[in-house]
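Entry 14. Ran structure prediction on the chain below.
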Amino acid sequence: MSLALPSNVLSLSDAAAERVRGLLRVASSPVTGLRVSVEKGGCAGMSYKMDLAEPSPGDEVVEQEGARVIIDAKAVLYLLGTRMDVKTDQFSSTFVFENPNQTSACGCGESVALTPADPARVG
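Output, structure tokens:
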């Protein structure tokens, strides 16, 4: 039996979509998307990882405003309902995640604690 996931696995702000399009445009090798995954590690237990990549079987692909984000199949339940944005200050620009599945974060901002979403409640 396959699980029907809601269509809002992840959404992008206008700034995030612009940044993803820019990364894909200047990539050193042809790729079709920015892969977002979640890995174990850091003081809070998990961290977000991003790479330029092609989709793999089982991945979810979100296309918004010409930007393509590939969500690793193992990260989908951790990212359900997440909004991806860009935070820019005087010296840096970085992606940030407004994730309803986040239960805490470390003080340094490098890792988070995430609980998998119940897809039946999100849809």
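DSSP finds three helices and nine strands in the chain. Will compare against last week's run tomorrow.
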